[in-house]
Amino acid sequence: MPTPSTAPLAFDLDGTLSRRARSMTASAIREILKVTQQPDVISFAGGLPAPELFPLDEVRAASNRVLDVYGPAALQYSTTEGHAPLREWIGAQAGIPARNVQIVTGSQQGLDLLGKVLIDEGDVVLVEAPTYLGALQSFQPYLPRYVQVPTDDGGIDVDALEEVLKTTRAKLLYAVPNFQNPTGRTLSAERRRRLVELTAQHGVLLIEDDPYGQLRFTGEAAPSLYSLGLELHGDADRNHVIYSSSFSKTLVPGLRDAWVQAAAPIINKLIQAKQGADLHTPTFNQMIIAELVDSVLPRQIERVRQAYGERARLMLDRIHADFPAGVQSTTPEGGMFLWLTLPQGVDTQALLPRAVARKVAYVPGSPFYALGGGENTMRLSYSNATPEQITRGIRALGDTLREALAGS
After folding, report:
1. What's the longest Cα–Cα distance across the chain?
2. Banded pLDDT at 15 (limits 50, 70, 90)
3. Four-point Cα dihedral 26, 28, 33, 36, nearest 10
4. Contact 103, 257 (CB under 8 A)
5. What is the rounded CA–CA span in Å between residue 378 and residue 338?
6. At what angle do helices 297-322 and 387-405 cross, to 10 degrees?
7. Is the pLDDT of residue 2 over 70?
8. What is the C-alpha separation between 93 and 12, in angstroms, rounded?
9. In 3D, which of 135, 200, 131 has the Cα closest to residue 162?
């Protein structure tokens, strides 16, 4: 038993946390996923790829080839920049040198590292309203000041953005132009060029987050913001557009392979930031992906496109049949999500327990707004549900909404 003179001080451990740590919040999606682990709950909450579509045999065969070809090197430490053949392949798809490509451990790490090297406390970060919750979580510890830009069915309202830029000195704009998470909307082709030009004119970095771009199942593809920036500037090292993407949605999420394309000054700082974070993305995982990109990836993308297109159409059909009047839905052309807007006064956060009681779950829309709002919205994911689950789940959710709108 310590004497009073040697007794340890009573630490206020919460008080020892940094301002950055105190600004962190839990992911609303991850918290909801804890509730939906019950096997009888149909979850439209998490944006999870369909596991039955994973190319198990192909990944197994690629793993064996990697070990045969590279031997112990496949299991050794490697360079921070990433596996050279994989970076070269990615660069070739974009028409840029491999030196402008940085491999990261999932897109989420890419966003975190970009926040670390780009955002100073108080910098204005422009985001869509609504925007991807994971980006808000990644950037928040660096203490930015968020400014929301309105969106509509064509994506970012570029006219509204132009008005914002007349009075606001912004550091960067973060956007998900293809099949946006959370709304499923796509930025129209005519707005893309103007968005790139506007941000260039005002000295605003533009982060294009594009994990879903290959998953188009209807409509016409539009050029990436990165390619338009490359066209505008004529050089990868002068391009103000930063591009982020991933193999998680097209191949498998568990290998956690993603990348960032950017000008050399940004890539060089990302390398240094990543050295401090995890040294490098797992060597073996990168080598497996490199084995799959030419042979398996194109087939896998087509397989996923077809499945998600069928599930999205079924979900929309059931929404139209089973939901009460007054509920509006987006119509995605690809990706994994759609967005519902309910009549004003309906709080989807408060409604969630009633839906879970009917064995169906979703993500309330308000966490996707950087500055609040969207209480009457919700995100649904169709990617990880079977057709039978979609039919049953939408019926149960429709009953929940009908009850809420009736004032029960």
Report:
1. 76
2. confident
3. 130
4. yes
5. 9
6. 30
7. no
8. 52
9. 200
As given in the structure block, the two tokens for residue 173 are 């704009």
Length of the chain: 408
pLDDT category at 4 given cuts 50, 70, 90 is low
Cα angle: 273, vertex 276, 279; to 5 degrees: 100
Q: How confident is the model at residue 27 (pLDDT cuts 50, 70, 90)?
A: low
Which pair of tokens denotes residue 13?
Answer: 């451990």
Q: Return the SS3 of 124.
A: strand
Position 159 scores a pLDDT of: 97
Residue 392 CB-half CA count within 13 A:
12
Say if residues 122 and 145 touch (Cβ distance below 8 Å). Answer: yes
State the virtual CA torsion across 390, 393, 396, 397 in degrees, nearest 10: -90
H or E, element range at 321? helix 297-322
* Torsion angles phi and psi, residue 15, rounded to 5: -70, -15
Residue 87 contacts by C-beta under 8 Å, 6 or more apart in sequence?
81, 98, 101, 103, 259
At residue 19, what is the residue type?
A: R
Rounded to an integer, what distance in angstroms lies between the CA atom of residue 307 and that of residue 311?
A: 6
CA distances for 390 relative to 154, 250, 317, angstroms: 27, 22, 10
* pLDDT band, very low/low/confident/very high, at 365 (cuts 50, 70, 90): very high
Question: Is residue 117 left, alpha or beta, with left meaning phi > 0 and alpha meaning psi from -120 to 50?
Answer: alpha
> Closest Cα to residue 167, out of 126, 115, 121, 225?
126
Compute the distance between CA of residue 87 and CA of residue 258 in angstroms, rounded to an integer: 10
